[in-house]
User: Which sequence fits this backbone?
């Protein structure tokens, strides 16, 4: 999977900028993304604040670490 040029925080900022009465086409042109990409971001991150995205990312990392620890313990038995 190709890594995005933008972080989740930047994506949320771009979405907020568009919500502030800017046209979608103008925002897409300014950041060099397609309308399709913009609408995918909107579906995934629409309505989120930066703090919420950070919290969700932290929860995901913690869950992944817990899973890795459980696998490690199970393999030692």
Assistant:
């Amino acid at each position: 999977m190709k890594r995005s040029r933008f972080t989740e925080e930047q994506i949320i900022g771009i979405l907020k900028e568009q919500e502030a009465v800017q046209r979608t086409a103008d925002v897409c042109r300014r950041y060099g993304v397609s309308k399709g990409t913009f609408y995918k971001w909107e579906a995934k991150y629409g309505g989120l604040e930066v703090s919420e995205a950070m919290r969700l990312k932290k929860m995901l990392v913690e869950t992944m670490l817990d899973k890795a620890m459980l696998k490690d313990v199970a393999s030692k038995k």
Remarks:
- The helical segments are 8-19, 24-31, 35-45, 50-76.
- The CA atoms of residues 24 and 74 lie 50 Å apart.
- The chain has a mean pLDDT of 87.
- The two ends are 35 Å apart (CA to CA).
